[in-house]
Design goal:
single chain; outer membrane lipoprotein receptor (LolB), chain A; 11 strands; 7 helices; globular; alpha+beta
Length: 215
């Protein structure tokens, strides 16, 4: 084996180890907010809106290549998130504490009310808390972990509630000055990776953004 092959092997091995290292560092919500999340949490605390672009990759055990989609998102505190896929097709997914809906070609194709489907409320709370780094809320349902290397940080979550553990095994949120990535390992062995780019923190939502949650 050449030195180049050894170097590549070491890089890939290190990448796998580093991804799991976060779970060797248990943290409380307070420790995370005073440590790895101090800067990004401060940015979110001063902003009501988080907007940007995403690349979504779903790795399924049965398929060799990931399913990939791209688009943009708008997250508004106390309102919800609008997840607008542009590729490979146009689809708008709106998630709030009150429910969810999917809009394809201008028509609502799926709609669920949280009062009728309690699981929707749980999913909404978890996903919105992940994006807003609300670890105080998350610690009621997860064991928390955290590590920081230079400017880069990772926060790990492992569910303590059986109903959530049946859906995914763990989650890793990562970034530097802001949230840049989210990895979810499903209970069945599948994996979801979301990369966030061109992210902006804005003090207040505009009228168009507020309208997204009134559709």
């Amino acid at each position: 084996m050449t030195w180049r092959a050894l170097l590549l092997l070491w890089v890939f091995a290190c990448g796998a180890v580093c991804a799991e290292d976060v779970f060797e560092h248990p943290q409380t919500a307070t420790q995370l907010l005073q440590g790895p999340l101090a800067q990004p949490a401060a940015s979110l605390r001063d902003a009501q809106v988080l907007r940007g672009k995403f690349v979504y990759r779903k790795y399924l055990k049965e398929i060799p290549q990931p399913l990939i989609s791209r688009g943009e998102f708008v997250f508004v505190k106390d309102q919800g998130i609008d997840w607008h896929t542009r590729e490979p097709f146009d689809s708008d997914f709106v998630l709030t504490a009150n429910g969810m809906k999917q809009i394809d070609a201008g028509k609502t194709t799926v709609q669920m009310n949280a009062s009728e489907q309690p699981a929707v409320r749980v999913v909404a709370r978890i996903f919105l808390s992940l994006l807003s780094l609300d670890v105080n809320s998350l610690q009621s349902s997860f064991n928390l972990f955290g590590v920081q290397q230079g400017k880069q940080w990772q926060v790990g979550l492992r569910p303590t509630v059986a109903a959530i553990a049946a859906v995914f095994r763990d989650a890793i949120v990562s970034g530097a000055t802001q949230v840049e990535g989210l990895v979810l390992h499903d209970a069945n062995g599948d994996r979801t990776e979301i990369n966030f780019t061109e992210t902006q923190y804005v003090a207040t939502p505009n009228a168009q953004e507020l309208q997204l949650f009134k559709k």
